[in-house]
Amino acid sequence: MALLDNDHVILDCAATTRDEALDLAAQKAAELGVGADASTLAEALKAREAEGSTGMMGGFAIPHCKCAEVADPCIVVLRFAEPVEWETMDKAPVKVAVALFIPDGERGTEHLRILSKLAVMVSDANFCSSVFDAAEASRVVDAINAGLEQ
Fold first, then answer.
1. Which of 13, 31, 97, 100 is the most buried (most CB within 10 A)?
2. Straight-line distance from the first to the last Cα atom of the chain, in angstroms, rounded to the nearest whole number
3. Which residues of the chain have pLDDT under 50?
4. Is the pTM here over 0.90, yes or no?
C-alpha cells in the first residue's frame, strides 16, 4: 500500500467537528485496508488527541496514531468544505487535516520522520497554498509527497 495516493484524499470534506473529522479519517483508512476497523482507528486518533492537540498553525492539523492493527503506514488527507474548530497553536480553525496511521512497535519508528517533515511543510506558505487551492486530489498528493521526499 502506498503511504499516500489520490484515493487517500477527501476534498470538500463535510466534517464539521474535530471528532467527525477523526471518524472520517479512520473510516477512509479502514476502507483503504490499513488493517484495522474504523472504530479502532478512530479510538486511537482520539486517544492521541486527548494527550495533546495535533492542531498546528495556518489551518492545518496532523492527527496521528500508532496502532498494533495497522499493517503499513498510511496518510489520509481531509480538506474541509468549511473550517473546523480544533485546538491549534494560533487559535485558528483547521482547513486541512493530514492524518497519519502508523504500525505499533519497531515498524512505527518511521512516524517521527514523517511527522517532522509534515510539520515543516505546514509552515511553508507555498505548500499551504498548493494544498488549500488544489482543484484535484493529485495536486495535494504531489505537494505532500514532494515534501516527504526532501
1. 97
2. 21
3. none
4. yes
